[in-house]
Design goal:
About 10% of the residues lie in helices and about 55% in strands. By secondary structure, it is mainly β. It has a twelve-stranded antiparallel beta barrel. Strand 8 (about 225-235) and strand 9 (about 240-255) form a beta hairpin. It is elongated.
Length: about 375
C-alpha cells in the first residue's frame, strides 16, 4: 500500500533503461548506451535502492495494534486517523550487473549516491459495521477505508556509470509536492472470543482509484490491485489489565499495467502490548516486521532479486470515554524504523479518534477497528 496508498518514484526510467540496453550495437552505440543508461537510472533513483515499486508496499505497516482480535460491539462505528510519516533513503548504493547491448556483453558498473526525503500527511476515514448474528461461530465485520492528504518528496543524487574506458557522471535533483486521495481499501474480519483468548482472520484488498501518475514522484494510489489476508490473536485479561496482540499476513500484488511492473509477495507482522491502569487508560508499546519474500518482476536487470524489509517499534497510549451514549476512543502511537533494506526508513505517528456503540459495563474495553 501503503506506508500506504502512496508511492514516490519515477517509473518511466525503467522503460528507458531497457530500451537503451537493447537498441544499440557497435562502439558508438555502446558509448550512447552508457550515457542514456546513466540518465534513465538517475531518473529511477528510488528503484535502485528500494524494492516494492516506488519503495512503499500496499501494506501500511502498523495498521494493526492492541486488542486487534477482540470482537467489536455490534452496529456501526467510525474511525478517523491522522497519519504522518517522515522518510529518507540513503545513498552509497553500488551495483555491478551484466547487461546485453546488441551483440556485446559489456559490464556496466553503476556507482550511485542519492538521498530521498519524503513527508506524507494523510487523514484516513473508515466506517465499519459489525453484525450481531454469528457467522461460523464468530463476529463478522465489514469496513471500507479511504484517505486524502499531502505528499512531498525530493531526490538529490549523483550517478557515475562506466563501460570499459567510458565514464559519465550526472547530478540530478527531482522534487514533487501535491495533494491527492488514496485508493479504497475494503476489509472483512471474523473474530472469536474464548475467555481471555481472542482470535481473528481477515481479508482486505486495494481498489486502485486514488491519485496516481506513473510519471510523478509523489503518488497516493499504487496503480494496481492487491489482496491481503492473515490471522491475529489477542490475549486480554480484564482482571489484571494486561493485553498482548499479534497479527500476521501476506500480500499478493497484481501487475501495474502502467509500468509492466509487479511487486513480489510480502509477509508482515504487527504487534502491540499494553497495560490498562483503569477501564479507560492503557499504555504500552507497538511494533512491526515486514519482509518481501519474492522479488519484483519487471525491474531492471541491475536490481537483481529486488526485495525489501523493515522493522519498527515505539510507544502507545489510548483513552476510552463516553460520548453521547456511545463510546469514544482517542490514541497516539509512534514508530521508529530500523533494519531497512531497499526501502526508505524514518518515523511515523498515528492519532486515532473513533466512535462506536458503547460496550456493556461488564464487558472488556473495545478497540475501534481501523484498517488502512
Amino acid at each position: 500500500m501503503p506506508h500506504s496508498g502512496f508511492r514516490y518514484a519515477f517509473r518511466a526510467g525503467r522503460a528507458s533503461a531497457r530500451r537503451a540496453l537493447t537498441a544499440c550495437a557497435g562502439f558508438h552505440a555502446q558509448r550512447s548506451a552508457v550515457f542514456a543508461f546513466a540518465l534513465a537510472t538517475l531518473a529511477g533513483v528510488p528503484s535502485l535502492a528500494l524494492a516494492d515499486e516506488g519503495g512503499v508496499s500496499f501494506w501500511l505497516t502498523g495498521q494493526f495494534g492492541s486488542l486487534a482480535a477482540v470482537p467489536l460491539q455490534p452496529g456501526w462505528s467510525f474511525a478517523s486517523v491522522y497519519y504522518h510519516t517522515s522518510l529518507s533513503a540513503g545513498g552509497n548504493v553500488s551495483a555491478a550487473r551484466q547487461a546485453t547491448i546488441g551483440k556485446f556483453n559489456p559490464t556496466i558498473n553503476i556507482n550511485l549516491n542519492a538521498n530521498l526525503n519524503a513527508r506524507v500527511d494523510l487523514l484516513f476515514l473508515a466506517p465499519t459495521y459489525a453484525f450481531a448474528s454469528p457467522v461460523l461461530g464468530g463476529q463478522l465485520a465489514l469496513s471500507m477505508a479511504g484517505a486524502f492528504g499531502r505528499n512531498s518528496t525530493s531526490i538529490d543524487g549523483t550517478l557515475t556509470a562506466s563501460l570499459g574506458p567510458l565514464t559519465t557522471t550526472r547530478v540530478g535533483s527531482i522534487r514533487d509536492e501535491r495533494n491527492g486521495i488514496a485508493d479504497l481499501y475494503p476489509q472483512a474480519t471474523l473474530r472469536w472470543n474464548s475467555g481471555v483468548n481472542n482470535f481473528m482472520i481477515y481479508a482486505m484488498g486495494d481498489i486502485p482509484s486514488g491519485t496516481y501518475d506513473p510519471g510523478r514522484l509523489s503518488n497516493f494510489g499504487i496503480g494496481h490491485g492487491a489482496a491481503d489476508g492473515g490471522a491475529g490473536y489477542t490475549y486480554f485479561n480484564p482482571q489484571t489489565g494486561y493485553e498482548f496482540s499479534v497479527v500476521t499476513g501476506f500480500t499478493y500484488n497484481l501487475q501495474n499495467t502502467n509500468t509492466d511492473y509487479q511487486n513480489g509477495i510480502n509477509w508482515h507482522l504487527d504487534w502491540g502490548a499494553s497495560q490498562f491502569f483503569s477501564k479507560q487508560l492503557h499504555v504500552g508499546a507497538v511494533g512491526y516486521f515486514y519482509e518481501q519474500l519474492t522479488g519484483d518482476t519487471g525491474a531492471p536487470l541491475i536490481l537483481g532479486a529486488n526485495r525489501s524489509r523493515i522493522a519498527g517499534v515505539g510507544p502507545q497510549v489510548g483513552y476510552l470515554f463516553p460520548i453521547g451514549g456511545m463510546q469514544g476512543y482517542v490514541s497516539l502511537k509512534g514508530y521508529w524504523e530500523f533494519d531497512a533494506s531497499r526501502r526508505a526508513e524514518g518515523w511515523n505517528t498515528w492519532v486515532t479518534f473513533s466512535i462506536s456503540p458503547a460496550a456493556p459495563s461488564t464487558a472488556a474495553p473495545q478497540m475501534p477497528m481501523f484498517r488502512k
